[in-house]
Amino acid sequence: MSRRTKKAAPTSGAARPTVTVCRCCCCGTPAKVPHLDHEAQLTDLRTQLTGVAMVRRTDCLDACERANVIVIQPSAEGRKAGGRPVWLGQVNDPDAAADITTWVKNGGPGLADPPDILDLYTFNPSRRVRHELED
Question: Which is higher by pLDDT, 23 or 73?
């Protein structure tokens, strides 16, 4: 008979929000969005959200007509509170990135209301694209 104690089951979902930044296809290229320093935007998000959220770069989110695309996924706590991934398109303004940073620092989806201005950037991707990101 084993006397080992049961370990707590790992929690599902990320402990922190995840910010996924589309790069390497249409998003993140000067050909598509010439007036934005794409690397500076990504670096700034990573710097501002260190210890708050995981910021990751992905090759393509298949919503090229909305370049630059950023997806904010809730933390595990945010998901339990009803938060779902929020897709933002045409994030080509430093002020928009600053609004995203503020929102994520306040808890992100499920835990904090986004600034009203982000409604202008929010869109619903196709079901296929949503499922690919969540897998």
Answer: 73
